[in-house]
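User: I'm curious whether this sequence folds into something compact or stays loose and floppy. Could you predict its structure so I can see for myself?
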Amino acid sequence: MRCLLLPFCLVALFLSSCQRQGSSEVVAVEESRQAKNLLQGIWMDDESGEVVFRAKGDTIFYPDSVNQPAHFMIIGDTLVLGRNRYPVVKQASHLFWFRNQTGDIVRLSKSDDPNDVLYFVHAQPQAMTSLREVQKTDSVVFFNGERYHWYIAINPTRYKVVRSSYNDDGVGVDNIYYDNIIHISLFKGADRLYSSDIKKQMYLHHVPESFVEQSILGNMQFDRVDASGFHFNATLCIPDGAACYMVSTDIGFDGKLSMKLLEY
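Assistant: Here's the prediction. I'll summarize afterward.
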């Protein structure tokens, strides 16, 4: 039996169906409008005194412009924030306490300073990128008496990469980054052996898909030339993290591209 979610209802429906004597049962859980109304405003951390977020309507905004706004609800004694859930410990018009993802209690107080709205004047969240313009490198190498010229261009794009993390209060936030596309060209004298764009999706046979989705194709460096061809090292890294894959991206003398995982 199909369960329908009615978007115009004033309650949030968490739908589940269970088979009982051939019938389905729909369980509705009501969102607390009073609790949501109490949360409207700008909230500060009691310990640090820093502005944590602003609740406006159905959305929570963060003072850090790289943190994406998140839809929220309060259902029962739980703050539902995006994909995350946080138990509410205490709530009143002037205070809001909840447990973060590590189980610690975050104690917030509502700000009464009208100037705190300036923390949220950015028109829209910013996306981060390590590049602002195309980066180009090239070199001439000789092998077996032949002259070769390779060329690399790292091009910033508008392809977004979403990375989920936790802020200083242990609250889950999403940050947006921009990916890169890397162009490689290889010439033997005036003859072009290879010329094409490299995208991170081309490494799915060597890097787990879940990693590729959250990573950025950050760099491509020439390594060496030998009897098998030209070897370039590509790096796919999680933004602002230490996790990276390095994949050898090789071009043979016949112009064919091949790849091999080097390290993680």
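Summary: The mean pLDDT is 84. The chain has two helices and 16 strands.
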